[in-house]
Design a protein that fits this description.
Layout lengths: L1 H26 L5 E4 L4 E8 L11 H21 L5 H23 L4 E7 L9 H42 L1
Helix pairs in contact: 1-3, 2-3, 3-4
């Protein structure tokens, strides 16, 4: 049942990403900017041939290859159930869904990804729904790794504590 729900959520992310991009392409041009919430956010049509901050700009096939590798790892983790928690399952599913959304753009839009969400209050790259999914999933994965490391550290510290007390008692 969890797989079906994950597939539905992933499909909804991809559909929402592609529909919003189609709406932007159909209704805005590169000079258009729609202010939202008094300039807190802007809707601005940008085509990006790189990754965030235009990293690897114009390296479409390298970006496609990196995306495919990451997506293959996500699929492997989901199929082989290598994730440690339900939250990790959802995080990996979000990374996969966002990767699919941006991969569709790279393949079918001459190597360019449509971005349109812009923060009006800080200098930050323009992004899209797929980027939100990837970043949310990656952030959750990072957070889960940090929590696991802290937990392992506490366990190892607690396991060493009785040994230290025991050796002091035998002296």
């Amino acid at each position: 049942m969890t797989y079906i729900l994950a597939l539905v959520v992933a499909a909804l992310v991809v559909v929402a990403d592609q529909i919003t991009k189609l709406l932007i392409v159909a209704n805005l041009n590169s000079e258009s900017c729609i202010s939202v919430f008094g300039g807190l956010f802007n809707i601005r049509f940008v085509e990006n041939s790189g990754a965030a901050w235009s990293i690897l700009e114009g390296k479409t096939w390298l970006l496609v290859a990196i995306s495919l590798v990451i997506m293959a790892i996500c699929v492997f983790m989901l199929v082989k159930k290598t994730y440690g928690s339900k939250l990790m399952f959802w995080a990996v599913s979000l990374v996969l869904a966002g990767g699919v959304g941006n991969l569709i753009d790279r393949v079918f839009r001459s190597g360019r990804v449509v971005d349109f969400i812009e923060f009006g209050f800080v200098d930050f790259p323009v992004f899209n729904v797929a980027d939100i999914a990837v970043c949310t999933g990656a952030g959750l994965i990072f957070l889960l790794f940090v929590i696991e490391e802290i937990s392992d550290y506490k366990k190892s510290k607690a396991a060493k504590l009785p040994e230290t007390q025991e050796s002091e008692e035998t002296k």
